Amino acid sequence: MSLRIVVCVKYVPDATGDRHFAEDLTVDRDDVDGLLSELDEYAVEQALQIKEAADDAEITVLTVGPEDANDALRKALSMGADKAVHVEDDDLHGTDALGTSLVLAKAIEKTGYDLVVCGMASTDGTMGVLPALLAERLNIPQVTQLSEVSVADGKVTGRRDGDTASEQLEAALPAVVSVTDQSGEARYPSFKGIMAAKKKPVESLDLEDLEIEADEVGLEGAWTKVEDAAERPARTAGTIVKDEGEGGKQLAEFLAGQKFI
User: Fold this and answer.
1) Is 204 helix (H, G, I), strand (E, B) or coil?
2) Family assignment (predicted)?
3) Among 106, 156, 172, 242, which one is least packed by beta carbons within 10 Å?
4) Which candidate, 117, 142, 113, places its Cα nearest to that of 1?
């Protein structure tokens, strides 16, 4: 039986662009270029390596987002994934992590899966909670923050590196895993891969397909809300301390006048 791998990816604003909030205090995704989240590229890479080591495996990349999010799917397909699922619905605007986990879980169940692979976090929200939320909604084990991952004999195993030690972890399939940016450099799409991606199937789903009510997601259904946002203040010139015997005293006086959280 084929190993069914689902990789969750996200289309995010380019970190090198001029990112800002829209009038409703959600991230403005219309006026800035977007791309596949770099941290999700590691998840795609690990899924590809698992597939290459397996006798039979299929990779589906899954995203939730606007029409332009299709670009993230095409990037993953050009890297070597087999097919894609794109959940797009106007009522998803403003959905938070909890709502996104609901949508992803429903789509994963509809697609079919044995292993769900995620990046360690998205490069826009950087919350890192989605893998755990997915595992809870799917009622399956989670093995997160892995620097190394493999699948064999109906189990997923991996290494989680901490500051002072490493752990070897294991879970029976089906399971959710997340991988870090230390798991291995993501491959570049080849010209052949880019051309092949144009012919690979991309399934489109909306909330009705997933049997999700509009009030469960979006801004109205969000459990979190941005109350206020302000532009980051411009950088000011620093204070230069010339140490002529009084440098330590000047530094101490400066620090004493600062407010720290």
Assistant:
1) strand
2) Belongs to the ETF beta-subunit/FixA family.
3) 242
4) 113
Domain ranges of the chain: 3-221
Q: What is the distance between the alpha carbons of residues 85 and 63, in angstroms, rounded to a whole number?
A: 7
Give the CATH superfamily of 3-221: HUPs (3.40.50.620)
- The band of 28, judged by pLDDT with boundaries at 50, 70 and 90, is confident
**22: region left, alpha or beta (phi > 0 left; psi from -120 to 50 alpha):** beta
Task: Yes or no: say if 92 and 103 are a contact pair by the CB < 8 Å rule.
Answer: yes
H helix runs in the chain, sequence order: 38-53, 70-79, 97-111, 130-138, 191-197, 218-221, 247-256
State the pLDDT at residue 261: 57
Find out whether 103 and 95 touch, Cβ atoms under 8 Å. yes
Q: What is the mean pLDDT of the chain?
A: 91
The residues with which 4 forms a beta bridge, in sequence order, are 58
Is the pLDDT reported for residue 103 higher than 90? yes
Q: Which two tokens stand for residue 167?
A: 């752990």
Helices (H) and strands (E) counted in the chain, each on its own, are 7, 12
Buried b (16+ CB within 10 A) or exposed e, 43-81: bbbbbbbbbeeeeebbbbbbbbbbeebbebbbbbbbbbb
**How long, in residues, is the chain?**
261
What single letter denotes the amino acid at residue 79? M
Amino acid residing at 65:
G
